[in-house]
Amino acid sequence: MLLTVAGIRRRQLPRGRRLLHLAVAGVLVQAVQFSSIYAGMDLGVPSGLAALIIALYPLTASLLAVPLLHERVSAGQLLGLVLGLGGVALAVAEGIKLSLNCLPGVGFLALGLLGISAGTVYQKRFCGEMEPVSGNAVQLLAASLVVLVPALFVEGWDVHFTAAYWPVLLWSALVNSVIGVGLLYRLLQRHGTSQVSSLFQLVPMSTAGLGALLLGQRLGPLTLAGLVLATAGTLLTHRARH
């Protein structure tokens, strides 16, 4: 779809070294991150534990940005990141059930965390001037080719095209991979890594709110306290610049 839009708008695809940088960032953010998260949850990792592991992203990305991008993370920003992580831990604590059987899945979640953290820093370092349509098309194409290999040799092509399948597929493709990642890159062009990545701490709050609204899920006291703390940590990270 993005290649079609790029063709209509007569946008030339990147070439040479720029093409290589886009491909690397796309594989890390799109292929390694999403595939690892889905694989980890498929291996039995509870959604709460998965959310907590990925919630480490603002902290890991900020720590990588200090030596690799020479960004400065102030004490206030670091405090905000830690508070946000603590808030996420509280918010998902009621749904976490640890088991040795989910250790392989936890490994995939850790790989997904590494993918989004390293991919974010790589994107900001080498792809800061990326044209959103053609650049994202290249990244998604590179990620698709990488994911194609384990899909062929591990899973095959056994896909059941049901009525419930298409909305999930379209949401994952358009909202997650195109719009969500596109907004992430846009924010990275304007703000520091710690400020942008801290927004991920609001994901559990949004998920819990939608769960209560659409699924009738109960918000316990730990969840509510965690949501407040995560929001406060995110706001502190954005306000503390020095």
Let me know the largest β-sheet.
Answer: none
In whole angstroms, how far apart are the ends? 42 Å
| Radius of gyration from the alpha-carbon trace, in angstroms | 18 Å
Helices and strands: which structural class? Answer: mainly alpha
Number of DSSP strands? 0
- Helical fraction equals over 70%
Write the SSE topology.
Layout: H1 2-8, H2 16-42, H3 47-54, H4 57-69, H5 75-93, H6 103-126, H7 132-155, H8 165-190, H9 193-197, H10 203-214, H11 221-239
Structural notes for this entry:
The protein is 76% helix and 0% strand. The model has no long low-confidence stretch (mean pLDDT 87). The termini are far apart. The chain has 242 residues and is mostly helical.
Key attributes of the depicted protein:
242 residues; mainly alpha; 11 helices
What's this entry about, in short?
The protein contains eleven helices and no strands. The protein has helices at residues 2-8, 16-42, 47-54, 57-69, 75-93, 103-126, 132-155, 165-190, 193-197, 203-214, 221-239.
